[in-house]
Design a protein that fits this description.
Layout (H helix, E strand, L loop, with lengths): L3 E4 L9 E8 L4 E4 L3 H11 L6 E9 L4 H14 L5 E5 L4 E6 L5 E5 L7 H8 L8 E7 L3 E9 L5 H16 L11 H10 L11 H9 L21 E10 H13 L4 H15 L6 E8 L13 E8 L3 H13 L5 H7 L13 E6 L10 E7 L8 E6 L3 E9 L2 H22 L7
Parallel strand pairs: 1-14, 13-15
Antiparallel strand pairs: 2-7, 2-8, 3-6, 4-9, 4-14, 5-6, 8-9, 10-16, 11-12, 15-16
Length: 432
């Protein structure tokens, strides 16, 4: 099984009968705290900025069993605490309440005339309304598609894998006993209530050392993208295979010998590829890091934080930098930002980032038919990279501005990166 990680502009869905569901709430609710990621996300939405949704899709044999999928959707929503939360916005302040999950009811609804799946995702996945997620399916006689999308407020990439795995199991058997789900709402409240850190806390050293080296500027893709300062362009998405399974296996062995991970090797070869095109080395980038703990393996929620890392052309240098920033990655981001001696600076709306997910070790790695992880598109002024590893390959999805300059440089960069991966994996580069 290969998970296809793609964006709405590259996603093709076969026609069929569109079905949708709605969640009805009761009257009971209690106030809840939000994480800094959620608060920043909602502040942007309140300013009128477009927010991003993430969707899990997979196929099931035969036409959709409406009763079975209704039961599966209701069990999923009642199971995960973040999906009980409704945003409260009075035009100035943003907060949230948690609805009583026992009062949540999932019911089939009728899509609007002429609506398609993307229309439903765009309409339903709004963080300032409830539910901020879309429950849908496309029914066909032979093979149907289940679609479950969420505003980013409720999920990260790992959550999408959890949702697909659980929905598939619940659709097959509504009485299926799933592993206990942790409570994201409690985790977010714990982060919000954390005490301020003293300025000399040793856990802040990795953050400060890295940001000192960057002059407190957030990373940017090191080539012009054909945009002036303050300009954005519609998103273009580039998806391709960077390396086959054997190459990535060899890369992992070399990385371990150097005291790092496959991710460290990917960042090193990224830096080499950019340097070969004329970028100054080393290469700073933001990297997403999971804050899930042992009890969160089956928990849906926004658990990722981002940390800055400096990727060098030398594998040992990248390994040391990555190890250092990860030591401070478990701190609540609120505390880190409050402790910085200078404010962060960035001149683009988005930031240069490179994410890596090994889908072989996530829920649903086997047993799903044609799973897709789909993201919404939005105007952008930066390059953002998502690497995904499966049993078959290492694939990449790149979000970039749809300009001739950006398209040309990203195409050259990805070609160079693929070559750098192969050379490192075969041991032909002395620095390896």
């Amino acid at each position: 099984m290969t998970v296809q990680v793609t964006s709405a502009d590259r996603w093709q869905l076969a026609p069929g009968e569109l079905m949708t569901w709605r969640v009805r709430t009761g009257s009971s609710s209690v106030p809840v705290e939000l994480s800094i990621n959620q608060r920043n996300h909602l502040a942007a939405a309140a300013r009128g900025e477009r927010t991003i949704w993430l969707a899990a899709t997979f196929d099931v044999v035969g036409p959709i069993d409406v009763d079975a999928l209704t039961a599966a959707y209701q069990a999923l929503v009642r199971r995960h605490s973040t999906l009980h939360c409704e945003v409260v916005w009075n035009g100035a302040d943003v907060g949230a309440v948690r609805r009583d999950p026992r009062e949540l009811r999932c019911e089939p609804s009728r899509p609007a005339a002429g609506e398609e799946v993307l229309d439903v995702l765009e309409r339903e996945c709004s963080p300032l309304s409830y539910p901020a997620f879309a429950l849908a399916a496309v029914s066909r006689p032979d093979l149907s598609t289940v679609v479950c999308g969420f505003d980013h407020l409720h999920v990260d990439g790992v959550s999408i894998a959890i949702v697909a795995d659980e929905l598939n199991a619940l659709y097959a058997d509504a009485a299926r006993q799933l592993p206990p789900a942790g409570c994201f709402v409690s985790r977010a409240a714990g982060w919000a209530a954390a005490s301020p850190l003293p300025g000399d806390d040793p856990r802040l050293v990795p953050w400060r050392r890295t940001l000192d080296a960057l002059d407190y500027r957030l990373p940017r893709f090191p080539f012009p993208l054909g945009l002036g300062e303050g300009e954005t362009a519609p998103q273009r998405t580039e998806c391709r295979t960077l390396a086959g399974a054997e190459t990535v296996d060899a890369l992992g062995l070399i990385a371990r010998e150097a005291g790092t991970t496959t991710y460290g090797a990917l960042l090193t070869t990224m830096s080499r590829a950019l340097h070969a095109l004329g970028a100054p080395g080393p290469t700073p980038a933001l990297v997403p890091v999971q804050t899930r703990q042992d009890g969160d393996r089956s928990t849906v929620g926004w658990f990722t934080t981002t940390v800055p890392v400096i990727a060098g052309d030398d594998l040992a240098v990248t390994a040391a930098n990555l190890r250092e920033v990860r030591r401070g990655a478990g701190l609540p981001l609120d505390q880190v930002l409050a402790s910085l001696p200078r404010p962060l600076r960035w001149s683009r709306r988005d930031v240069f980032m490179a994410s890596y997910v090994d889908y072989r070790h996530l829920p649903g790695a086997r047993g799903l038919i044609a799973p897709h992880h789909v993201s919404a598109t939005a105007a952008t002024d930066e390059v953002q990279i998502w690497l995904s590893r499966t049993e078959a390959e290492l694939a990449v999805r790149v979000r970039l501005p749809d300009t001739p300059a950006a398209s040309a440089v990203v195409d050259r960069f990805l070609s160079r990166w693929s070559g750098a991966l192969t050379r490192l994996a075969t041991g032909s580069m002395a620095a390896a």
